[in-house]
Design brief:
- With 339 residues, the protein is an alpha/beta fold.
- The chain has a single domain, classed as Glycerol-3-phosphate (1)-acyltransferase (3-Layer(aba) Sandwich), CATH 3.40.1130.
- 44% of the residues lie in helices and 14% in strands.
- It contains 10 helices and 8 strands.
- Strand 5 and strand 6 form a beta hairpin.
- Helix 3 packs across helix 4.
- The longest helix has 35 residues.
Length: 339
């Protein structure tokens, strides 16, 4: 994501040279001042061994292996199985128990494949990332909005491959800044962010976003945010998601309205062909003069866009997160978190 100078036309089709780690830092090195624990080092060693093993396979074989590993999380390990089952059942009350279970199993397989793709993205490089996508996409809308030179706020959720969506844009030459949370395991954090840089993304930690995003908007860049999880301490609002109030970050809406830039909902969705398709939908950010109400309305619109996508591809959503964990006081019992 290392962005070039402010674009005055559609972004180039070729990837600019990827950014390098800061002086004195190498891929996998922890951020300065944060010492990994022994447990973190063991986890990271296991990851590196797994990546080395997967790298001996073809990409298709590695993706299939990822699906099989992911399914182990459902049976026999049962990792967050009750959460996944209950949330799918609550979102789709018309589906019977057998169909809910089939969706759950596919969601676990999807998560395993995503993990493998993310782990191998640096090995793929820009051309390899592009090979994972169908030629047909909505990329032209991204080009059109960037060509206006105002910058773009790109929102996505935990549906499809949010990592490959950003990698695809970078591989197409989009000057993209990806806002990310710091991971507890600093070795994982450094490894993943270096992989993102290797395909051309520029990583901005969320505690730097308020300072960095205004500059990115002035320089006509695209800023990508994953904003479909309620986080403690993060400015949020409650909007309907599958009919239940869900705490949702206000950031994409605030920045779009403040800097008068387009907001795009972008997702990379797996197709029957085995490849992804980049899907892009523009979200209206209407400025009526009532900033709080306008932000809430925009958050509701992009959450509705996410819900429409999840309804079409329910097995590609990250049901493992408790989406309705935080709700406003007075929520009726029938709309509370399914437990």
């Amino acid at each position: 994501m290392t962005p070039p100078a402010r674009p005055t036309s559609a972004p180039p089709e070729h990837q600019p040279p990827p950014s390098q780690p800061p002086a004195g830092r190498t891929a996998g090195a922890p951020p300065a001042g944060r010492t990994p624990t022994l447990g973190h080092r063991l986890q990271f060693g296991l990851l590196r061994a797994l990546v080395a093993w997967l790298s001996t396979m073809s990409l298709d074989a590695a993706r299939r292996m990822g699906e099989r590993i992911g399914q182990l999380g459902y049976v026999p390990l049962g990792i967050r199985k009750r959460v996944v089952i209950r949330q799918i059942a609550a979102a789709f009350p018309d589906k019977g128990a057998d169909e809910v279970e089939r969706l759950a199993r596919r969601a676990y397989a999807n998560l395993g494949r995503l993990a493998v793709e993310t782990a191998l993205v640096a090995r793929l490089g820009p051309s390899g990332v592009l090979s994972l996508f169908e030629d047909d996409s909505d990329f032209a809308l991204v080009q059109q909005r960037l060509a206006e030179g105002r910058g773009v706020i790109a929102f996505t959720g935990h549906v499809g491959s949010w990592e490959l969506a950003g990698a695809y844009l970078a591989a197409r030459g989009v000057p993209i800044e990806a806002v990310a949370r710091r991971m507890n395991n600093t070795l994982f954090d450094a490894y993943l962010n270096q992989a993102r840089r290797d395909v051309g993304m520029h990583v901005v930690y969320d505690d730097e976003a308020v300072r960095r995003i205004p500059r990115a908007m002035k320089e006509g860049r695209l800023v990508g945010l994953v904003a479909d999880q309620g986080v403690m301490g993060l400015a949020s609002t409650f909007v309907p998601f599958f009919g239940r109030p869900a705490k949702t970050p206000r950031g994409p809406a605030v920045f779009a309205l403040r800097y008068k830039v387009p907001i795009l909902f972008i997702s990379a969705l797996l197709q029957p062909s085995g490849k992804y398709r980049l899907c892009v939908e523009e979200i209206p950010a209407v400025d009526t003069g009532d900033r709080d109400a306008d932000v809430d309305a925009t958050v509701a619109r992009f959450t509705a866009a996410l819900e429409r996508t999840v309804r079409r591809h329910p097995d590609q959503y990250f049901w493992h997160h408790r989406r309705w964990k935080r709700q406003p006081p007075g929520t009726p019992p029938e709309l509370r978190e399914p437990l």
